[in-house]
Amino acid sequence: MDSFAPSRRGRTVRAWCHALLLGLALAGCGTTTEPPTATAGGSAAPTAAAEPQKQLRVDGRTRGYQLHRPAANGSKPRPLIIAFHGRGSTASYLREQSRLDEDARARGMLIAYPEGLDKLWGAGTRATEQRPDPDLDVRFTKALIDELVRKERADPERVYVVGFSNGGSMALRVAAQHPELLAGAAAVSGELPTGAAAVKPTGPVPAMIIYGADDPVRPLAGMPSPAPAPAGEEPVTPTMSARDSAGAFAAAGGAGKPATEAEAGYDRTVWRLKNPGATVQLLVMHDAGHTWPGSRITPPKGFGRTSTALNATSTILDFFRL
Fold this sequence. Notes:
GO terms for molecular function: hydrolase activity. With about 325 residues, this protein is an alpha/beta fold.
């Protein structure tokens, strides 16, 4: 798998259908309302180990996050991943959906799971009635990185962002606007906002986007003209296609023409950046929907299939060389 050399710092049936048609395309990559916690076998999904919710004061607000620490408590700086949950979801749910903690134990990583305001992220740059300051979550992310560098020995040269759905779009926004903070970024079912909420990459950063070819929530081809949101909810954020999202990062990194190869269960498109070994990659999963490939959690009805062609978590961490 192509990866890169690290760069600088880096939720009755009718009600459900109505929500799927009108509400699932909000804020960056689409609404991902937290589904019932059931596994494929129908039993309750396991929950992350209970631990105190950590807090950080930013912009006069108390923001919450969960933190996974590696078992080894050495003195060396440790790589840090900031992992953004989907819209309507929670940090705890993303931990079960992605199983990032399992990989972190073996790879010695810190993983921070921040909580979005009202369970969503301001992935776009457009101010709204509900979110008059569209930059709140960017500043929160920057402050969280600084906090963990100071207090948890996070390595400022090995900071990465990951997210699902609206959280994937949030990860891409941070990477686009602050490539100097990151060594890499990855989004599952997340695209860059466009139109009045547009986010444009401003510098080189290795990035990976993993997307279901049959995503019924936020299509692979993007959603440039979404329907209005239900009254009182965040306006729907228009997004460009997954390919154009990846292409925008490639262009910002000075990449040449991409190469696409068919692999078992998915197609991989790779752009090679000027920085030796650095790439932008788009993985389009065959017969897959608005889901996290390899996840053990059954997605909500109407979200489509979960691909088992690869495990998105280990694929992303391998891309990050962690």
